[in-house]
Amino acid sequence: MDKQELLKEYQDxxxxxxxxxxxxxxRINVIGEHTDYNGGHVxxxxxxxxxxxxxxxxxxxxxxxxxxxxxGSTVVEFSINDEKPETDxxxxxxxxxxxxxxxxxxxxxxxxxxxxxxxxxxxxxGAGLSSSASIELLMGNLLKDEFNLDIxxxxxxxxxxxxxxxxxxxxxxxxxxxxxxxxxxxxxIFLDCSTLEYQYLPxxxxxxxxxxxxxxxxxxxxxxxxxxxxxxxxxxxxxxxQKLNIKKLGELDENTFDEYSYLINDDVLIRRARHAVAxxxxxxxxxEAMKAGDLEKLGRLINASHVSLHFDYEVTGKELDTLAxxxxxxxxxxxxxxxxxxxxxxxxxxxxKDQADAFKENVGKVYRETIGYDASFYDAEIVDGPHKx
Length: 389
Hints:
Blueprint: H1 3-14, E1 20-29, E2 41-42, E3 44-57, E4 62-67, E5 76-79, H2 95-106, E6 115-121, H3 131-146, H4 153-168, H5 175-181, E7 187-192, E8 198-202, E9 208-214, H6 226-240, H7 254-260, H8 267-291, H9 295-311, H10 318-328, E10 333-339, E11 346-352, H11 356-371, E12 376-379, E13 387-388
Parallel strand pairs: 4-6
Antiparallel strand pairs: 1-3, 1-13, 2-7, 3-6, 4-5, 7-8, 9-11, 9-12, 10-11
């Protein structure tokens, strides 16, 4: 988006001059889905679709938030000293901002006056590209900059996850916030979610590109069965610990899981745990394939990830399955799978650049015929984390 347009939007809403404009990216995850809260590995990257924030200082203790993306949006106001989550349905979107403010203040950081903030995102809402983490790290970096807070990015990432878990109520892992906050241009992040050890790996796709495919089916993870999946994995760990001594499923390889799965002795729990274990191992193999330049193997592992998310974890649904399975049939497509929490949202495909237009047209046609409305397709660059523009 154009900076001047954003500044004008702010002026129209708040009747004054803005001070600064910030940008925070969204994210995609190449592979490693639902492994983060299971103590496994992930391979995400920050993307050029994200959230803009236009900031203006105030001389009182009021925060005024305005979203340019919500129809009929009005300014939501609260005090910098108000620590309670918003419960009014029209205002709950502000909790991603408010939570970061509350937890920074609780950690002892000085935020001593109010401000106005206009937000305008170009991430498709509910598309599973992590608009919530984009917002949390936008707020964290904006407050760090404007109030000269002495806090490092990983600490902001952790506060973003705390906001998601405790202030919003979604029991997610740390991947989304880490991918957004620690994003690096043209690189994906190989992250061990149990230790937070990470390394940047150039995402070298040669003649191929990543195409993002949005189902355009709105969803909210906080209102989905996401938390139920977290609880099911925790119950599987509890049962395995009759004989083992593990904290998370990510500690197991497939052979060990196979030998001890009799302890779980429940069809659903076995499938949930099997996905978490196998997906973690798939991610490790995908990293080796990436390092070796074996894009075809990477593509097969991406396909296998979707199959596991469909049949074992059961978080895909007709819309995502239609996108992925149709993508598999297209010339020039190495692999495709759902990304994010699931239950709608988006999928990605690795597609040969010179066949990308035909790919989008063909997949779009099948999706429209099958689902009854259009999917959307996005080409996104891999970018740095949050910054002032």
